[in-house]
Every structure is written in C-alpha cells, then in structure tokens.
TrEMBL record:
<feature type="transmembrane region" description="Helical">
    <location>
        <begin position="45"/>
        <end position="64"/>
    </location>
</feature>
<protein>
    <submittedName>
        <fullName>Sugar phosphate permease</fullName>
    </submittedName>
</protein>
<feature type="transmembrane region" description="Helical">
    <location>
        <begin position="256"/>
        <end position="275"/>
    </location>
</feature>
<keyword id="KW-0813">Transport</keyword>
<dbReference type="Pfam" id="PF07690">
    <property type="entry name" value="MFS_1"/>
</dbReference>
<dbReference type="GO" id="GO:0005886">
    <property type="term" value="C:plasma membrane"/>
</dbReference>
<dbReference type="InterPro" id="IPR050382">
    <property type="entry name" value="MFS_Na/Anion_cotransporter"/>
</dbReference>
<keyword id="KW-1133">Transmembrane helix</keyword>
<dbReference type="GO" id="GO:0022857">
    <property type="term" value="F:transmembrane transporter activity"/>
</dbReference>
<feature type="transmembrane region" description="Helical">
    <location>
        <begin position="168"/>
        <end position="188"/>
    </location>
</feature>
<feature type="transmembrane region" description="Helical">
    <location>
        <begin position="287"/>
        <end position="303"/>
    </location>
</feature>
<dbReference type="InterPro" id="IPR011701">
    <property type="entry name" value="MFS"/>
</dbReference>
<feature type="transmembrane region" description="Helical">
    <location>
        <begin position="375"/>
        <end position="396"/>
    </location>
</feature>
<feature type="transmembrane region" description="Helical">
    <location>
        <begin position="309"/>
        <end position="331"/>
    </location>
</feature>
<feature type="transmembrane region" description="Helical">
    <location>
        <begin position="343"/>
        <end position="369"/>
    </location>
</feature>
<dbReference type="InterPro" id="IPR036259">
    <property type="entry name" value="MFS_trans_sf"/>
</dbReference>
<feature type="transmembrane region" description="Helical">
    <location>
        <begin position="141"/>
        <end position="162"/>
    </location>
</feature>
Amino acid sequence: MSKIMQSKHFKYIVLVLLFLGWCLGNLDRFVINYAIVGITQDLGLSASAQGVILSSFFLGYAIMQIPGGALADRFGYRKVILVSLFSWSVFTILTGSAWSLFSLIFVRFLFGIGEGSFFPSGSKAIATNFPVNQRSGAMSIMLASGAIMGVVTPIVTGHALVSIGWRNLFYIIGAVGIFITALMFFLLKEPAVKSKLADGTSGQQPKMSLKAVLKTPMIWNLFISYFSIYAVNWGLQSWMPTYMVNVRGLDMTQMGVLAAIPALVSIFTMLLSGYVLDRIPAGKDRIIASVFGVLVAVFLYLMSHSGTITTFITYMTIVTVMAGFISTLIISKSLKTMPESVVATANGFINTGAQLAGFLTPMLIGFLVQASGGSYATAFIMLICFALICSITLMFSRRVNSDQDTTPEVQATAV
C-alpha cells in the first residue's frame, strides 16, 4: 500500500473513495424526501411534523461540522471518515425501525451527528492530496455526487417505495453503507508526512487556531453565502416531491422521473463549474456567482408562476444549475486560501451555515404551507429572498487579487 500512496495517481484513489462515500451520504439524505410521503401516511403526521422530521437531520449535522473538522485537523481525515460512515449507516438502518414521530426525529438527529464529520474531513483529504489549482475541480467531483444521487434517488426510490416499502428501503441502504465502510477501511490511507506544498516548497504551514479562523472576514462571508444558497437548494430538494404530487397532481412514478431531470443536467454543469473555477481569475468568479444569484431569484419566481409542468421543470433545472455553480465556488474558496492545517475546521464552519439552512428551511416551509392552507406562494417568496441575500453577500465582499499568490498569513485575512 505504501507504493500506491507514493504514486502520483494516489490522489485519484482518494477522490474516488470520497466520491463513493458521498454518493451514499447524499442517497441517505435524499431518500427521506421521497419516503416522507409514505411515512406521513403510516404515522398520521401533519405538514409541520413532516417539516420537523426533514429538519432534524440538519440540526445534528450542523452541530458536528466544526467538531468534525477539528477532529480531522487533529487526528487525520481517515479515522474521522471511517467513524462517520459507519455510524450514519447504523442510524439509516434504525430509521427503518422508527415507530413514532419522536423516535423518527431522534434517529434522524443522531443520523446527522454521525454524518456531520464526513464533509469537513473529506475537504481535508482534498487539500492534503491535491495542489491548489486542482482543488475546485476535485471538490466539484465530490459535490457532483449530490447531483448524481438527485437523478438516481427519485427513480429508484419511487419504484422501491411501492414494491418493498420505506422501512425495507432504509434497511438495505444502511447495509450498503456498512459494506462501503469496510471498503474504505482497506483502501483509504493517509500520508504520514505532508507532501510538498502547492508552491513547491516543503514543510508545515503555519498553525491557526479556531479563534483565528473565526476572525477571518472571508469565512463569515462564505458562511452567509452558503447558508443562503443552501436554503434554496434544500428548500427545493425537501419539498418539491411533495409539491409536485399534492399541487401539480403527479403520481410517484411521474414525480420521480421529472424530478430527476434537473439533477441529471446539473451533473455535467457541476463538473464543468469546478473546471472553470480553477481557471477564472480571482474576483471575477465572485462577480459571476453574484449575477447567478440574481438569476436564481428570477427563475424561482418564474417557477412559482409556471402554467405547465414542462415550464416548471425547465425553470427548476436552470435554478439547480446556477445554484450548483455558486455552491462549488463557495465551498472550494477556503480550500484555496486557508492554511492546510485548518482547512477542515474552516470548511466545517462554512458548511455549518449550509446545514443550519437545511435545518431551518424545510421546517419553515412546512409551517408556511400549513399556515396558508396548502399554498406554496410564501415558501417561494422566502427562497427568492435567500437567493438575493446570497447575491448581495458575494457582490459586496472584498476582492482578492490572487488566491494562489498570497502567503498563508495573507490568505488568512483576505476575502
């Protein structure tokens, strides 16, 4: 195995394993959005209770982001990834055993705790194994797993929920997770000594404390931006299946096929965004993402007023593509600017913003829909506001002349 680690291709082995693990993570998270229809019927739940269930995962997930990143920075990414993957697989199995609203909320919260360490530790693995000018591309591949699962989940889940039921579906997915954990145990390794830095020099980068990370203006800028765009992303992911069935009158099979279209398109655009972002001069990427934020708001408005399901899916696809570009920019920015010694902690904090949005948005939409008697108009208005907040935050951030030309000390304070 040491010879494999010394190979110039070892970083791609790491990336494939991260991609596989995050495919499972996204599948585990997405499947509840489709299974919740049957769960709600079986347990007799209201729209507000449905929102709480969808949000409970994100509370646990958000809580674990910073501790998970700190653990990866201290003990290495391999140990943290293995524990995270195994624990969330166990809680996926337990989801299928839930018998009441409280038990389901509790298990989904623990599921979020278990999965919460994977993303920051995966970011650490990318920063450790890839040079600066390849990190957006590597991160886009890892993030593309979400788009791929966005295609696979509705198609597979729509059929499986009818044929085997939601409980058996969670049992099977959890068992697959345990198998992937074993695969990671044997194949995922971590260098004992850091390789050369991105500029070709060797040695350790300067250490930064969590307090110093939190004093970095860029980190707070990315935190707010990621919170806002993720509110849009997860607002659509969590409630569009229910909306398409209850408001647009589709059955589960039709919904599954149509919901896969935006995700299918976004697979290619997500990979393209990483390639482009590694080649766009610093500052211009921020401007492009800010414009995209405004366009996301515009097309969300058009979605809410679309007369046919065809135009609705078209607008949703455009929103998904532009939001994906913004997300890739935000989450890969700290990989290029922060010292490697705290990159997991930094990305864990930024991702906390996203997961807080994931916690709040489904629950807020549930309350808004119930309060308005089943109308989704106010929910769309809320998502439009979040898109505009993201755009404004990116536009008014201070500009960096070059991510790659700054030293770690300057990177820690630049935006």
